[in-house]
Protein backbone atom coordinates (compact mmCIF):
# COMPACT_ATOMS: atom_id res chain seq x y z
CA UNK A 1 0.00 0.00 0.00
CA UNK A 2 1.47 3.31 -1.12
CA UNK A 3 -1.27 5.81 -0.25
CA UNK A 4 -3.75 5.87 2.59
CA UNK A 5 -6.62 8.17 3.49
CA UNK A 6 -7.19 8.89 7.17
CA UNK A 7 -10.52 10.22 8.33
CA UNK A 8 -12.93 9.99 11.21
CA UNK A 9 -15.20 12.01 13.38
CA UNK A 10 -15.16 15.77 13.53
CA UNK A 11 -14.18 16.99 16.99
CA UNK A 12 -17.75 18.16 17.68
CA UNK A 13 -19.11 14.69 16.83
CA UNK A 14 -16.86 13.37 19.61
CA UNK A 15 -17.93 16.06 22.07
CA UNK A 16 -14.42 17.51 22.01
CA UNK A 17 -14.44 21.29 22.00
CA UNK A 18 -10.91 22.08 23.18
CA UNK A 19 -7.62 21.03 21.62
CA UNK A 20 -6.19 20.17 25.04
CA UNK A 21 -8.95 17.65 25.81
CA UNK A 22 -7.16 14.55 27.21
CA UNK A 23 -9.06 12.29 24.81
CA UNK A 24 -7.19 13.85 21.88
CA UNK A 25 -3.92 12.29 23.10
CA UNK A 26 -5.52 8.81 23.08
CA UNK A 27 -6.94 9.31 19.59
CA UNK A 28 -3.58 10.53 18.30
CA UNK A 29 -1.84 7.53 19.90
CA UNK A 30 -4.24 5.16 18.13
CA UNK A 31 -3.66 6.90 14.79
CA UNK A 32 0.11 6.86 15.29
CA UNK A 33 0.09 3.14 16.11
CA UNK A 34 -1.84 2.29 12.92
CA UNK A 35 0.17 4.63 10.70
CA UNK A 36 3.49 3.34 12.02
CA UNK A 37 2.46 -0.19 11.13
CA UNK A 38 1.56 0.86 7.57
CA UNK A 39 4.75 2.92 7.20
CA UNK A 40 6.79 -0.14 8.18
CA UNK A 41 5.00 -2.00 5.36
CA UNK A 42 5.92 0.66 2.77
CA UNK A 43 3.30 3.38 3.08
CA UNK A 44 4.44 6.55 1.28
CA UNK A 45 1.51 9.00 1.42
CA UNK A 46 -1.11 9.92 4.02
CA UNK A 47 -4.03 11.87 2.56
CA UNK A 48 -6.46 14.00 4.56
CA UNK A 49 -9.01 16.67 3.69
CA UNK A 50 -8.19 18.75 6.76
CA UNK A 51 -11.55 18.69 8.50
CA UNK A 52 -11.50 19.45 12.20
CA UNK A 53 -11.02 16.51 14.54
CA UNK A 54 -9.45 13.24 13.47
CA UNK A 55 -8.02 14.60 10.23
CA UNK A 56 -6.29 17.61 11.79
CA UNK A 57 -4.96 15.38 14.59
CA UNK A 58 -3.70 12.98 11.92
CA UNK A 59 -1.80 15.84 10.29
CA UNK A 60 -0.05 16.50 13.61
CA UNK A 61 0.77 12.80 14.01
CA UNK A 62 2.22 12.60 10.49
CA UNK A 63 4.38 15.66 11.12
CA UNK A 64 5.78 13.93 14.22
CA UNK A 65 6.30 10.67 12.31
CA UNK A 66 8.25 12.51 9.59
CA UNK A 67 11.06 13.02 12.11
CA UNK A 68 11.90 9.30 12.03
CA UNK A 69 10.13 7.95 8.93
CA UNK A 70 10.03 8.64 5.23
CA UNK A 71 6.35 9.58 4.88
CA UNK A 72 4.59 12.28 2.86
CA UNK A 73 1.38 14.10 3.64
CA UNK A 74 -1.28 15.44 1.28
CA UNK A 75 -4.01 17.90 2.26
CA UNK A 76 -6.83 17.87 -0.28
CA UNK A 77 -9.84 19.84 0.97
CA UNK A 78 -13.10 19.61 -0.97
CA UNK A 79 -13.03 23.37 -1.75
CA UNK A 80 -11.06 26.51 -0.99
CA UNK A 81 -11.50 28.33 2.32
CA UNK A 82 -13.11 25.39 4.13
CA UNK A 83 -11.76 26.90 7.35
CA UNK A 84 -13.57 30.22 6.82
CA UNK A 85 -16.07 29.73 9.67
CA UNK A 86 -13.72 28.03 12.13
CA UNK A 87 -12.48 29.67 15.35
CA UNK A 88 -9.35 31.78 14.76
CA UNK A 89 -6.84 29.46 16.48
CA UNK A 90 -8.00 26.51 14.36
CA UNK A 91 -7.99 28.65 11.21
CA UNK A 92 -4.37 29.56 11.90
CA UNK A 93 -3.43 25.94 12.54
CA UNK A 94 -5.07 24.87 9.26
CA UNK A 95 -3.46 27.66 7.25
CA UNK A 96 -0.05 26.78 8.68
CA UNK A 97 -0.67 23.17 7.75
CA UNK A 98 -1.30 24.13 4.11
CA UNK A 99 2.32 25.29 3.95
CA UNK A 100 3.86 22.37 5.86
CA UNK A 101 2.31 19.40 4.04
CA UNK A 102 4.08 17.90 1.03
CA UNK A 103 1.07 18.45 -1.23
CA UNK A 104 -1.86 20.85 -0.93
CA UNK A 105 -4.62 21.39 -3.46
CA UNK A 106 -8.36 21.90 -3.02
CA UNK A 107 -10.51 19.74 -5.30
CA UNK A 108 -12.78 22.64 -6.25
CA UNK A 109 -11.82 26.27 -6.85
CA UNK A 110 -13.83 28.76 -4.82
CA UNK A 111 -15.87 28.43 -1.66
CA UNK A 112 -18.52 25.86 -0.74
CA UNK A 113 -21.17 25.48 -3.46
CA UNK A 114 -23.11 22.40 -2.42
CA UNK A 115 -23.12 18.86 -1.00
CA UNK A 116 -21.92 17.47 -4.34
CA UNK A 117 -18.44 18.72 -3.37
CA UNK A 118 -18.36 16.38 -0.36
CA UNK A 119 -19.62 13.48 -2.46
CA UNK A 120 -16.96 14.14 -5.10
CA UNK A 121 -14.33 14.43 -2.35
CA UNK A 122 -15.16 10.98 -0.97
CA UNK A 123 -15.10 9.38 -4.43
CA UNK A 124 -11.81 11.10 -5.27
CA UNK A 125 -10.20 9.97 -2.00
CA UNK A 126 -11.08 6.33 -2.62
CA UNK A 127 -10.02 6.48 -6.29
CA UNK A 128 -6.64 8.02 -5.46
CA UNK A 129 -5.68 5.80 -2.52
CA UNK A 130 -5.02 2.15 -1.80
CA UNK A 131 -6.89 2.08 1.50
CA UNK A 132 -8.14 4.07 4.45
CA UNK A 133 -8.08 4.29 8.20
CA UNK A 134 -11.35 5.58 9.63
CA UNK A 135 -11.95 6.24 13.31
CA UNK A 136 -15.55 5.13 13.52
CA UNK A 137 -18.10 3.15 15.46
CA UNK A 138 -20.14 1.21 12.89
CA UNK A 139 -23.23 1.53 15.11
CA UNK A 140 -22.90 5.34 15.12
CA UNK A 141 -20.96 6.25 12.00
CA UNK A 142 -21.85 9.95 11.85
CA UNK A 143 -20.54 11.76 8.79
CA UNK A 144 -17.97 8.97 8.29
CA UNK A 145 -20.71 6.84 6.78
CA UNK A 146 -20.37 8.49 3.37
CA UNK A 147 -16.65 7.79 2.91
CA UNK A 148 -17.02 4.33 4.45
CA UNK A 149 -19.84 3.36 2.08
CA UNK A 150 -17.87 4.43 -1.01
CA UNK A 151 -14.75 2.66 0.26
CA UNK A 152 -16.71 -0.59 0.72
CA UNK A 153 -17.76 -0.46 -2.94
CA UNK A 154 -14.19 -0.45 -4.31
CA UNK A 155 -12.89 -3.94 -4.91
CA UNK A 156 -9.61 -4.70 -3.17
CA UNK A 157 -9.68 -1.46 -1.19
CA UNK A 158 -8.35 -1.90 2.35
CA UNK A 159 -10.48 -0.41 5.12
CA UNK A 160 -8.98 -0.28 8.59
CA UNK A 161 -11.32 0.92 11.32
CA UNK A 162 -10.23 2.35 14.64
CA UNK A 163 -13.16 1.41 16.87
CA UNK A 164 -14.15 2.48 20.40
CA UNK A 165 -12.70 -0.85 21.59
CA UNK A 166 -9.36 0.03 19.94
CA UNK A 167 -9.38 3.36 21.75
CA UNK A 168 -10.06 1.60 25.06
CA UNK A 169 -7.05 -0.64 24.38
CA UNK A 170 -4.85 2.41 23.72
CA UNK A 171 -6.02 4.06 26.93
CA UNK A 172 -5.14 0.90 28.85
CA UNK A 173 -1.72 0.61 27.14
CA UNK A 174 -0.91 4.20 28.06
CA UNK A 175 -2.10 3.71 31.65
CA UNK A 176 0.03 0.58 32.02
CA UNK A 177 3.14 2.53 30.97
CA UNK A 178 2.63 4.85 33.96
CA UNK A 179 4.69 3.55 36.93
CA UNK A 180 1.98 4.76 39.32
CA UNK A 181 -0.47 2.36 37.66
CA UNK A 182 1.44 -0.57 39.16
CA UNK A 183 2.20 1.05 42.51
UniProtKB/TrEMBL annotation:
Pfam families: YpsA (PF06908). It comes from the Bacteria. PANTHER family: UPF0398 PROTEIN SPR0331, UPF0398 PROTEIN YPSA. HAMAP family: UPF0398. Belongs to the UPF0398 family. This is UPF0398 protein AFL42_03595. It comes from Oceanobacillus caeni.
